[in-house]
């Protein structure tokens, strides 16, 4: 049996990061672990892609960050959602729902 592709669907990483951080502030490894846990292993986040996305989201004003101690007493950058980030999450969630519904209709119709 072939390994299933566990990469995050192109174009959804930002939304998954925003949603994950809407629950609580986390560091990069925590974000990746949470996405994998909640998706029950279906999605794995590439660390390089995650770092690039976090930097992009912070520049856009959707995330704030601060250096803190982790539960293992290591220093890590923790990210949290800004008010603009919450609004962006609403926009991206609505867009994803619209696209997923359209794909579901196409699959039902046998396009």
What characteristics describe this protein?
single chain, alpha+beta, 3-stranded antiparallel beta sheet, 111 residues
Taking the alpha carbons of the first and last residues, their distance comes to: 28 Å
Outline the low-pLDDT stretches.
Answer: none
Question: How large is the share of residues in beta strands?
Answer: 5-15%
The total strand number stands at: 3
Oligomer: single chain
Secondary structure tally, helices: 4
What is the global morphology? globular
| Major pleated sheet | 3 strands, antiparallel
Name the structural class.
alpha+beta
Mean pLDDT: 91
Radius of gyration: 16 Å
Proportion in helices? 55-70%
How do the SSEs run, as a string of H and E? HEHHEEH
Strand order of the largest sheet: 1-3-2
Give an account of the 3D structure:
With 111 residues, this protein is an alpha+beta fold. The chain has helices at 13-23, 28-38, 47-59, 83-109, and strands at residues 26-27, 63-69, 75-81. It is globular, with a radius of gyration of 16 Å. The two termini are 28 Å apart.
């Amino acid at each position: 049996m072939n390994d299933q592709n566990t990469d995050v669907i192109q174009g959804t990483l930002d939304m998954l990061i925003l949603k994950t951080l809407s629950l609580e502030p986390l560091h990069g490894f925590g974000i990746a672990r949470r996405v994998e846990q909640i998706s029950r292993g279906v999605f794995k986040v590439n660390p390089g892609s995650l770092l690039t996305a976090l930097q992009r989201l912070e520049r856009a004003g959707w995330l704030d960050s601060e250096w803190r101690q982790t539960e293992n007493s290591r220093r890590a950058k923790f990210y949290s959602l800004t008010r603009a980030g919450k609004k962006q999450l609403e926009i991206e969630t609505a867009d994803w729902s619209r696209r997923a519904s359209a794909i579901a209709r196409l699959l039902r119709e046998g396009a």
